[in-house]
Amino acid sequence: DAMVIQNPRYQVTQFGKPVTLSCSQTLNHNVMYWYQQKSSQAPKLLFHYYDKDFNNEADTPDNFQSRRPNTSFCFLDIRSPGLGDAAMYLCATSDPAGGRNEQFFGPGTRLTVL
Amino acid sequence: SQQGEEDPQALSIQEGENATMNCSYKTSINNLQWYRQNSGRGLVHLILIRSNEREKHSGRLRVTLDTSKKSSSLLITASRAADTASYFCATDGQNSGYALNFGKGTSLLVTP
Fold first, then answer.
1. Which of A46, A59, B16, B94 has the most CB atoms around it within 10 Å of its CB?
2. What backbone torsions phi and psi does residue A110 show, to the nearest 5 degrees?
3. How far apart are CA B90 and CA A42, in angstroms?
């Protein structure tokens, strides 16, 4: 089945220790997104790629970086995690052709910062 | 930025009853979508309604859109315990590119 896969599902890191979350897709979608979602809140878009074209949201901290080496993979790097970065991180993909832009989400990675 | 606002924030009903959730937004949109999120999981797309549509159905789901009031509603008929989840509306528009603006969500609890 075509899908969006996130690894790991649960990640524990220490304050200030860099961490990388990964996302892969078998949908061959042009666009990949990273969202941060804190408890009982809406997902907050951090950035997205259209192919290799990177689009950063204005309020995304510099602490968050992303890489997309190919169509299938996208990584979220948190350079120096703080306690406030503990959250669920959601990866999503879409194919905006036809103007519909439904997004397909992975199961998320829950990040704990100690 | 988030522009959708759902109400109610939380809704508790019994199995078999209908659940109605509302969403309001602020700027012009191309499409409005509804997503469901089970606890601790990713979001699942439910239904998309274009700005030139007024109503759409999918199984037990009915979505309406009133662009003059900048509002949408999601109706789940004959609810089941498995419908327990958070429901989010999301909009995209001329100025948002491919990004979606998610509302804060409605938490639905369906009790047997």
1. A46
2. -90, 120
3. 10
